[in-house]
Design brief:
- There is one protein chain.
- The chain is α+β, with helices and mostly antiparallel strands.
- It is built from 17 helices and 17 strands.
- A hairpin with a 2-residue loop joins β14 and β15.
- α4 runs parallel beside α6.
Amino acid sequence: MTRTRARAVRIGVPVLAATTQGAVLVAVGLLITHPPAGWWDPGERGLVAWLAAHRTAALTGASDWLSALAFTPAVVTVTALAAVALLVGRRWRGAALLTGAVALQAALFVAAAHLVDRARPDVVRLDGALPTSSFPSGHVGAATALYGGLGLLLLRPGHGWRRVVCALLWAVPVLVAASRLYRGMHHPTDVVAGALNGAAALWVVSRTLPARQRHRTGPAAPVRGPVALVYNPVGVDDALLERLHAVVTAHGHHPPRLLPGSAEDSGRAAAERAVAGGARLVAACGGDGTVTACADALAGTDAALAVVPCGTGNLLARNLGLPADPADALAAALGGHARRIDLMRAEGDGLPVRAAATMAGMGLDAAVMASTHRGLKRRLGWPAYLLGAIRHLTDRQFALTVRVDGGPPVRRHVRMAVVGNVGTLQGGVRLLPDAVPDDGLLDLVLVQPQGLRGWGAALVGLVTGTRRPGPAAPLEHFRGHRIELTADRARPRECDGDPVGDGRVLALSVRPDALLVRLPGTVRDTPLEGAGTARTEAGRETA
């Protein structure tokens, strides 16, 4: 791909995404304001009228303060101050994310409000007659883009106090939405559309910005020997292969061997051929399935794996601190160092023994993986899983028996059970806070919330990393070398995001030090995440 074409693609894709976002926003607004015959009435008038009839002095004062957080002067001031602070700290990407998301949602809000022109609720409105229409809520959109973006920037480092602040920031758009309804300024669908507009703006801008580059504090360990690229031909096109080829040669290597993986084994045979042919580094270019297949082929050898994220979840790449862009990730791996991490061995009834590198589970997560269409994942990325999650939130709990390291059985009723070698999901959510990929242990979480209050406690626990001990906790954690899950009847199962068929049993065992993997930076500045007891004996890190 020429530089001109690459530049055009880099500019055109975000423009197309923003245009699509605006078109969808307007289309939804017109559908609400001009519904077809027989359209379902969500009963919005009743909710706003009920809130207006139950106003109190205290609630009115609180709503006034909350609305002020998202008025234009406050949003502009907070955005400017945050951007200046981020630039002073040399975090230009964070500054660009905040300012870009706030600006994008504002532009789309103005356009949609003009085209849809929805009347505000027919109640006494505490803010008077504003010049814009009711759809969508500009306050909620701005609050989501600004305070939601600040929360994302704080969440990444993973410290406990940052998670608490992040949770408070993420609560602001929700409270602003409630205040706008209370003050009679919007219909419920207006605030929902505003929140989606702000969230989509964050997503579009984050995907537009180039990947964050890590600064090294010392010399990196170079790769010695031939390099092979094993790729998923469905997710990796010729243009991306050219970019990856250029990265390898730019680092002083001979042109890499290009080996397409097959649908039958996700690239395992190709990786084995690469090692047999003398490759010292195998770059797995695909999703978590391709990465795991290559990791299994390289396990126990001296050949190193470079993870090149080209899929939907890319969990291993995220947990190893690699950039999201494939070419940047390969460059970081080639310029970084090598380190050994653990793998998992998965087995069960009707499930042949297979490797897993990130997480494996049973229940809700597996059902979501199985019901999310591949085409939707290619178009939306990991947010496609959110649509599948909505469909399965009402799935019933099921009885599960857990054994850790052959110990006494533990019986619970759960929504899902996840065993992990790593702990971070998309968006920086720490599902398994203690999971470290090089500590020789596996971590298990049982997700077992009871009702809306339980789901709320579970979400707070995921964001803040706090825990409630005991079997009644919405999130219950275990650690061990071998974890066996036995359900009351056949349930959906998944390994590294791939459905592996329903079954009653899923057993995971750790394979310590199984894989040599390339990490960005140097040994000193790239500690693997997690709060577990990571081992530091001699031989854990290899140049």
